[in-house]
Amino acid sequence: MEFLPILGTAIIAFIPATIAHLKGRSFGKWWIYSFFLFILAIIHSILIKKHDTESNKKIDHIFKILIYIFLIFGLVVMLWTVIVIGLKITGIEIKKNKNISSDIDIWSEYEGARPQFSIFTLIGLIDTQTKDGKHYVVVDMLIEYDLNDNTAQAELTEKVDQLRDFIKNYFASKYYSDLTPDNEDRLKQEIRSIMNNRYLDTAEIKGILFNKLDVMEL
Question: pTM for this structure?
Answer without folding.
Answer: 0.48
